[in-house]
Amino acid sequence: INAEYMGRPSQRCRPAEVAVIIFWRLSMAASGGSANKKSAMSLSSLDEQTEFSLCHPRSPRYPLLMLPFLCILTFGILYSADIPGALVSAFREELGMSSTQFTGLYASSALGSVFMCFAGGFLVDWIGARLSAIIFTFTTVISQVVFTMGVNLQSYLWMLAGRFLLGAADDSTNISQSVMLLAYFRSTNVGWAFAVALVVSRLGTIAAFLVEPQLYLRYGLLVAVAMEESPVLVSGIEME
Questions:
Q1: CB under 8 Å to 76, separation ≥6 — which residues?
Q2: How far apart are CA 100 and CA 110, in angstroms?
Q3: Distance, C-alpha 176 to centroid of its chain
Q4: What gap in Å lies between CA 36 and CA 30, rounded to an integer?
Q5: Given pLDDT bands bounded at 50, 70 and 90, which one contains residue 171?
Q6: Which of 63-72, 121-130, 173-182, 210-219 is the least confident region?
Q7: pTM for the full model?
Q8: Pick from 11, 35, 67, 236: CA 20 to 30 A from residue 26's CA?
């Protein structure tokens, strides 16, 4: 062994230095081999845990665990969006709405969606799909509070403002949901995941038309409208 290992290319190593170098190399080789074995064993055990653990993010079944939570996200919003249609008779009888005023509620939500869709897409790209979904969901809760106040005060302008906020957050939430579905499912079963999310969101519309008339008959219009906030709150809490 030349002295170049010691940083002295013009000299030779002494026998003691040679012994130290040989011992150091043998110890490093032994420790490196055991470390490699341990790392290989840990990686294999990690792969086994990942394969059999449903809650591990690397598990191939983890997207299936997240799919129901992503579906609930739009279930609550569509439930809230279709409540005026489910209670159309009550709105006309108790609030004295004309057909033009009633259709104006849906026109207001569509107008909010037109104005906020592009801004919602930029927000999703800027702060991420999860945080933007939380913001949009709680914006929907605020919109429902405003709308309920309008029903309580019998103020058409308050109801229009609440529907406008609802439309501003509605389609933006759909954008966040689509981005998260693509992130979890990537190139496998993407179409199936989108189909499941769409089916569950439409179940929100069916639930509104089945549940809200019963709430109105039992508790009155104000309670039926106020209860529309519950599915949206569930959506926001599960996203957190």
A1: 137, 140, 204, 230, 231, 232, 233, 234, 235
A2: 15
A3: 7
A4: 10
A5: confident
A6: 63-72
A7: 0.70
A8: 11
Contact in structure between 225 and 154 (CB atoms under 8 Å): no
Rounded CA-CA distance 201/193 in Å is: 12
Distance between CA atoms of residues 208 and 12, nearest Å: 89
State the CB neighbour count (10 A cutoff) for residue 65. Answer: 14
Q: Taking every pair of C-alpha atoms in the chain, what is the biggest distance, in angstroms?
A: 106
Please give the structure tokens belonging to residue 110.
């569509």
Euclidean distance between CA atoms 193 and 199, whole angstroms: 10
Distance of alpha carbon 88 from its chain centroid, rounded?
32
The token pair at 12 is 């030779």
Q: How far separated are the first and last CA of the chain, in Å rounded?
A: 63
Q: What is the pLDDT of residues 110-162, one digit of tens each?
A: 888 888 877 888 888 888 888 888 888 888 889 889 999 999 998 999 999 99
Query: Around Cβ 13, how many Cβ atoms within 10 Å?
Result: 17
For residue 166, what are its two tokens?
């609802």
| Sequence-ordered list of residues with C-beta below 8 angstroms from that of 35, at least 6 positions apart, any chain | none
- Is-contact 239 133, C-beta < 8 A? yes
β partners of residue 12 = 2
Closest among 111, 165, 116 to 138, alpha carbons compared = 165
Residue 64's alpha-carbon distances to 81, 177, 191, 192, 231, in angstroms, are 27, 15, 14, 11, 21
